[in-house]
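Q: What residues go here?
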């Protein structure tokens, strides 16, 4: 990465407003919090602490939790290279912030060690999930030179997947001349913004903005629902296919994909203060909240166009990501939209804190939430707990509690 003469102007333009939790805002609406929900959240932090002590005891050394199957009582674990490896340490960090339990802190320190090597992993686009939700959270609270270098190396590895002709970071490696980009990749750009802030190297920033702009152009339909996968021509950047992998159909609105877009473009506005990203986030939010298939409790079906609604499975993970996003987005919008988004996030948190989504303490293999949906077309991780559901749920509660 090379410095450019754009760097000084970039830093002067407000890069210092970046925060992982999105707590930096110029003006924001203020809403009265529900005392009963705040009390529930405090109990959820305590219960989450207890649950993760159950989960950590089941975890083999140098393995990371993926899910738990209630019918068999069996966990499924992964190595550090799995895209979800950063969520377990990230959730430990968030819970320790709230409960100050040294047991969680010790486990967090332990599990970060086998994750360190992923800083050099250039085979994945998910280094934001893997490294910024883990090391990034810790570094922002307690900066150390060691973790700073790990994050810079991670950003370099992520940036190595950028194709300037396509204008995107490659998501999945593929054969021939295909260049696959998924909407999920919007979630990994925050690591690049951080890298420019820390190093003064604007190329990270420029890659993130270019990726987001290309995604805005090609990933969204006129109603601001998102395709899951865009297949570009790697040579000339033209669009070859618009399709799904985890959704119901190529033309459907896969719920977690809509959540990734909502959260990702909210981060884009936080990082750049460019209003086109705020408008994009608002359009996505309005698509979600005004959709006739969004249930009253605001926890979406796994796909907004699933054919068996209302019997279709809900996706608690999509609801958790949306809740965390709404708990930030409302701060940047006009008063009327702010109230709508705040209320939506509040409703989602309230729903996730109760049955059927919230697991009873001591059950669910130590996970906090149940009834998430991973990949229905492939038949994997269907109606089970997932690490990212827990992570974004705890983040949503943290934001609700701490927002002023």
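A:
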């Amino acid at each position: 990465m090379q410095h450019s003469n754009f760097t000084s102007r970039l830093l002067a333009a407000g890069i210092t407003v970046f925060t992982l939790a999105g707590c930096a805002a110029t003006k924001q609406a203020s809403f009265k919090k529900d005392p009963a929900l705040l009390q529930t959240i405090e109990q959820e932090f305590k219960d989450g602490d207890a649950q993760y002590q159950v989960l950590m005891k089941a975890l083999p050394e140098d393995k990371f939790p993926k899910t738990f199957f209630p019918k068999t009582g069996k966990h499924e674990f992964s190595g550090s290279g799995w895209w979800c490896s950063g969520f377990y340490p990230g959730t430990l960090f968030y819970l320790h912030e709230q409960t100050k339990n040294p047991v969680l802190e010790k486990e967090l320190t332990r599990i970060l060690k086998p994750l360190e090597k992923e800083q050099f992993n250039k085979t994945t686009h998910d280094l934001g999930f893997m490294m910024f939700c883990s090391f990034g959270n810790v570094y922002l609270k307690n900066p150390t030179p060691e973790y700073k270098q790990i994050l810079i190396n991670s950003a370099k590895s992520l940036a190595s997947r950028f194709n300037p002709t396509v204008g995107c970071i490659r998501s999945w490696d593929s054969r021939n001349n295909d260049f696959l980009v998924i909407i999920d990749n919007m979630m990994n750009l925050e690591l690049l913004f951080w890298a420019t802030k820390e190093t003064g190297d604007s190329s990270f920033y420029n890659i993130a903005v270019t990726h987001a702009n290309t995604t805005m152009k090609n990933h969204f339909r006129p109603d601001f629902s998102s395709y899951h996968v865009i297949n570009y021509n790697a040579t000339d950047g033209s669009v070859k296919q618009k399709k799904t992998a985890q959704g119901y159909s190529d033309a459907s609105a896969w719920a977690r994909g809509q959540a990734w877009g909502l959260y990702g473009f909210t981060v884009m506005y936080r990082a750049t203060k460019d209003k086109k990203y705020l408008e994009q986030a608002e359009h996505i939010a309005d698509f979600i909240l005004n959709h006739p298939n969004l249930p009253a409790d605001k926890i979406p079906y796994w796909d907004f166009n699933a054919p068996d609604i209302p019997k279709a499975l809900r996706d608690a993970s999509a609801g958790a990501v949306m809740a965390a996003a709404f708990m930030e987005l409302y701060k940047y919008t006009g008063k009327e939209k702010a109230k709508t988004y705040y209320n939506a996030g509040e409703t989602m948190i309230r729903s996730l804190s109760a049955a059927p989504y919230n697991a009873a303490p001591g059950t669910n293999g130590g996970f906090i939430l149940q009834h998430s949906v991973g990949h229905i077309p492939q038949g994997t991780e269907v109606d089970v707990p997932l690490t990212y559901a827990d992570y974004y749920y705890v983040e949503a509660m943290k934001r609700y509690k701490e927002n002023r």
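A: Context that may help when evaluating the design: The mean pLDDT is 93. Strands lie at 64-69, 74-78, 162-163, 168-169, 178-182, 229-233, 239-243, 372-375, 380-384.
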